[in-house]
Amino acid sequence: MRIAVVGAGFGGIAAAHLLRQAGFGDVVIFDKADGVGGVWRDNVYPGCACDIPAPLYSYSFAPNPDWSQRFPPQPEILGYLRRCVRDFGLAEHLRLGTEVVAADWTGEAWRVTLGDGTTELFDVLIPAMGQLSRPVVPVLPGQQEFTGPAMHTARWDPGLDVTGKRVGVIGTGASAIQLVPAIAGRAAHVTVFQRTAPWTLPKPNRRYGPWRRALNRRFPALMRAARGGTWLLTVVTGKAVTGNRPARFAVWALSSGQRLVQARSMRRTVTPDYAMGCKRVLFTGDWFATLRRPDVALVTADVERLTPAGIRTADGEDHECDMIVYGTGFAATEFLTPVRITGRDGRVLHDEWRDGAYAHLGIAVPGFPNMFLMYGPNTNTGNTSVVYFHEAQARYIVQAARLLSTRSTPEKHTPEKHTPETHTLEVRADVAAAFDAEMQRRLGASVWVGCESWYRTDGGRVVTNWPGMAGEYAARTARLDEADYTTTR
């Protein structure tokens, strides 16, 4: 079988590697960029780092003994992914600088259309483009009037020097909470514009010295133990997010204690007014201390418009800025945009998802045979490593590929002239509908009530997050139930 993987980030690399390990050699990994890494290739803003401990934010089948610290910076994570591609032997399967613009089900195979207009046929399509690949920049009056540079954190210009600049940062999410402490002190002044205060927890970072790295290399069991310990910690935060009262109180107390000690006189301003779990809980050790600096200002008035010299807020105050940075997140609910995917009977995926994306286990969509998603709807996590979810999805997809391969007849082919003999595997509509109904019911209850402004689509559906513990997701994807699917030639 020919298998197309679209995206060379954590998810795409995991899927391609496990497929090749299972004996599927004809795997092609497309990425429109010139390098692998996904979000860790694109996000190069100052201070960019992982907010999940590295022992868990890495593949279980590729532990890294050489992390320099518990929460490694962006260059180390990108280097790790590059080494994985090399060590897994995936370099020859990469098609970098090659954008996939469309994929159409012919009745027998997926016809993939590339940016240069050429097409290729594949038996299996695996979109692995992630939920955090399309930055959101708010449309504000006066944006064309501002005379300085303005950019999203995910489109940071590495040649830009903030030294001596007055910087306006719009947003207080995961990127801003890393960027602001990294540039404060170098910039002449930083003004942070906050719409909603984030929930935070202390970031227990620590450096790993040469002795620790040497022990990791000599005794790999130490890395497994560190991964297990980190996993147990995320179980506690996971229970807090999903509504377990003792865990919720413990995490709330830890977060409140951090603000009490570090935020001091600004505690009211930086205290969230929504339930924990509605937005991602952020780990930080220097956010509140940075906000208290004399050369940093926290503004809570709404941004009204941009002016030639900076930002005007709803209270009528003008804030002078030499440059503006948008830490305003990503279009997480717009899955697979802008690739146009057309399935059986001319069904267009974006039309199917007009009221909100859905997929059985976040992986399979009725009407789209032999297509399996990585990091699809309802597979995001707000408390643990998404790489754990990626591995679970990749193992499930390997089972699907094996099921297809037992019903296929291998034959020689070229990408342009490929005659598939593979049966199709398509999730049943009733199975997908039942799973989606379960997700909406669970996400509409308990802690998730009142979180509409962050997670719900216009149709009132929650399409990004997984409602339970990560272990539950791994268990439910551990075995592909053939009865959930229909198979046809």
Written description of the protein model:
- With 489 residues, the protein is an alpha/beta fold.
- The protein folds into two domains: 3-134 and 331-488, FAD/NAD(P)-binding domain (3-Layer(bba) Sandwich); 150-210 and 257-326, FAD/NAD(P)-binding domain.
- It has 13 helices and 20 strands.
- The strands form six sheets. A five-stranded parallel beta sheet has the order 8-17-9-10-13, covered by helices on one side. It has a four-stranded parallel beta sheet with strand order 3-2-1-7, covered by helices on one side. It has a four-stranded mixed beta sheet with strand order 6-5-4-18, with no helix packed on it.
- Helix 1 (10-21) runs parallel beside helix 10 and helix 6 crosses helix 7 (245-263).
- The protein is globular.
Task: Write a concise keyword list for the protein shown above.
489 residues; alpha/beta; FAD/NAD(P)-binding domain; 5-stranded parallel beta sheet
Would you spell out the secondary-structure blueprint of this structure?
Layout lengths: L2 E4 L3 H12 L5 E5 L7 H4 L31 H14 L6 E3 L3 E6 L4 E5 L4 E4 L1 E4 L22 E3 L13 E5 L5 H8 L5 E5 L6 E3 L7 H9 L2 H21 L3 H19 L18 E3 L2 H5 L4 E4 L3 E5 L2 E4 L4 E3 L2 E4 L13 E3 L6 H4 L33 H20 L18 E4 L1 H15 L8 H4 L14 H7 L8 E4 L1
Helix pairs in contact: 1-10, 6-7
